[in-house]
Design goal:
Number of domains: 1
Number of strands: 4
Strand content: 5-15%
CATH architecture: 3-Layer(aba) Sandwich
Shape: globular
CATH superfamily: Response regulator
Strand order of the largest sheet: 2-1-3-4
Order of helices and strands: EHEHHEHEHH
Largest sheet: 4 strands, parallel
Number of helices: 6
Structural class: alpha/beta
CATH topology: Rossmann fold
Distance between the termini: 20 Å
């Protein structure tokens, strides 16, 4: 296991987990924190080498991030074992990972709930924007950005 590596997981690794990964890096750098945490992303049904969606690239560009060269990667045993914290976007993804990698289940959590368990977030999942409108992508990106800020506050 690598020290303090956070793995963000979604389905295809072309939208939500990519947003979370790059926003984590950006916000951590902006705050100039001496955090030992690194981040990565992967998908439970990802096909290796697929670029982020056009909408994901546009959302991130608005936030000053060029992610156009990123390529998707599937979750595998090596990525799981090298991660110290694994955060999924949905209950289904969390359940899938806990079944597939039961020996590592103690470090797997639902992303939104992990960031703010006391806030009683009624909708603890982050919806998949794939195939939706650009405004929905923006909404999801804003939601992830707020959760990343809560995550960083929790980690420092």
């Amino acid at each position: 296991m690598e020290d303090n590596k956070i793995l963000f997981v979604c389905t295809g690794n072309t939208c939500r987990s990519v947003m979370a990964d790059f926003l984590f890096k950006k916000i951590k750098d902006q705050l100039d924190l001496e955090m030992a945490y690194q981040s990565d992303s992967a998908g439970i049904s990802a096909i290796k080498g697929i670029p982020p969606t056009r909408e994901t690239i546009a959302c991130m560009k608005k936030r000053g991030l060029d992610i156009s060269t990123y390529k998707s990667k599937p979750v595998n045993r090596d990525i799981i074992s090298k991660s110290s914290l694994i955060l999924t976007m949905t209950h289904h993804q969390l359940s899938f990972l806990k079944k597939q990698y039961s020996m590592e289940a103690n470090k797997m959590f639902l992303f939104r709930y992990y960031c703010s368990p006391a806030n009683n977030i009624s909708d603890q999942e982050i919806e998949d924007p794939y195939g939706e409108s650009m405004s929905f992508y923006e909404l999801i990106c804003d939601q992830i950005e707020e959760d990343i800020k809560r995550l960083i506050t929790k980690l420092i």
